[in-house]
Amino acid sequence: MIKANVYEVKAKLSEFLDRAAQGERIVICRHNKPVAELRAVEDVRTEPRPVGPLRGRPTFEVPASFFEPMTDDELSLWDGVAATDPLSAAWTSRPVRGATKVAETKGEYGARRRRAARRRP
User: Which of 16, 37, 94, 104 counts the most CB atoms within 10 A of its CB?
Assistant: First the structure.
């Protein structure tokens, strides 16, 4: 294990990378206090990850009824949600009428300040 300060690692980075690739561990210090470790990557995955459920985990079956069309009652419930869901295609933003709450608050605040200023002698 080698200890090196940050400035030294910055100056000789490729040399430290070569040493790490050969199996050495380099502890990088800032003001002689360890902050990081530089070492070789041990296992690099070359084959693709398996697709499907994880080994040792419970699995479940999707019932055939899941793929059947919805009833009219279920569809009407979904249609009502679509109008309020901003991610649905049926959603439309409602136009802002009048001033926003922030503008109203600022306007009221400004009016109060003007009235208070008029009352002062």
Answer: 16
Longest dimension (CA), the chain: 84
Express each pLDDT in 51-107 by its tens digit. Answer: 778 888 888 888 898 899 888 888 777 766 655 666 766 666 655 555 555 555 555
Which ranges in 30-83 belong to alpha helices (H)? 72-82
Residue found under tokens 């400035």: 7
CA–CA distance, 61 with 111 (Å, rounded to integer): 65
For domain 2-38, the CATH architecture is 3-Layer(aba) Sandwich (3.40)
Helices marked H in the chain: 6-11, 13-21, 72-82, 101-119
